[in-house]
């Protein structure tokens, strides 16, 4: 199964607070953006929650994370370009947590399979392996830059592989945003995922 998590960013707030760049994003203005999440391919059936809500994911479920405009402005284009592993069970995360035999996450991937329909592309050669974050070496980050070819309605996404260890992962999500074909900036915020055994 796949858990879809869609963060609903406010493009009006971003337009009033431009800034940040790839690898050096600006804090998302205001509280964490609200989210909706669920299984299956119909977002109309997903649950709406505050952006501070840790989404519960069951063992062996992959997680698909994307960013969309809450104002439904068809000129707004967003793409997640960075995933920062911050803490695991409130402790600093380690490279073994990400890539070892008992990895919490494993290798995530940036997907743009919808690029031909929606006009986004991840920049060839810009993907990076897990490495310490610039601002906090206790955090580990992987990034993949994106470029815009035309305003789009939907977005590329990050795919986190199936998870199999119970606990709470706090992570940072960096995303790129443009409005009407004009680059506005890169932003980030830090939500959480709770990994649990199926009930």
UniProtKB/TrEMBL annotation:
Organism: Sorangium atrum
Protein name: Inclusion body protein
Superkingdom, taxonomy of origin: Bacteria
Region ranges (Disordered): 18-51
Start-end of Polar residues biased regions: 18-27, 42-51
Source organism phylogeny: Bacteria, Pseudomonadati, Myxococcota, Polyangia, Polyangiales
């Amino acid at each position: 199964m796949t858990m879809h998590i869609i963060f609903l960013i406010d493009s009006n707030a971003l337009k009033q607070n431009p800034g940040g760049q790839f690898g050096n994003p600006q804090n998302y203005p205001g509280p964490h953006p609200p989210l909706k999440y669920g299984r299956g391919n119909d977002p109309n059936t997903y649950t709406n929650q505050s952006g501070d809500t840790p989404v519960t994911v069951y063992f062996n479920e992959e997680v698909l994370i994307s960013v969309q405009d809450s104002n439904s402005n068809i000129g707004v284009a967003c793409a997640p370009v960075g995933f920062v592993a911050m803490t695991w069970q409130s402790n600093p995360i380690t490279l073994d947590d990400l890539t070892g035999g008992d990895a919490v996450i494993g290798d995530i991937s940036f997907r743009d399979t919808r690029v031909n329909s929606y006009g986004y592309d991840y920049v060839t050669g810009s993907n990076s392996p897990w490495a310490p974050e610039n601002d906090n070496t206790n955090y580990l980050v992987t990034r993949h830059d994106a470029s815009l070819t035309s305003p789009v309605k939907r977005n590329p996404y990050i795919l986190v592989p199936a998870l199999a260890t119970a606990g709470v992962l706090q992570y940072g999500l960096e995303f790129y945003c443009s409005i009407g074909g004009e680059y506005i900036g890169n932003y980030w915020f830090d939500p959480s995922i709770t990994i649990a055994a199926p009930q």
